[in-house]
Amino acid sequence: MKPNNSFNEKVYALLKKVPKGKVTTYKNLANKLGTRAYRAVGRAMACNPYAPKVPCHRVVSSDGTIGGFNGTKNPNSAPIKRKIALLKKEGVIVKANKIVNFERIVVL
DNA sequence: GCTTTGACTCTCG
DNA sequence: TCGAGAGCCAAAG
Question: Is A29 left (phi over 0), alpha (psi -120 to 50) or beta?
Answer without folding.
Answer: alpha
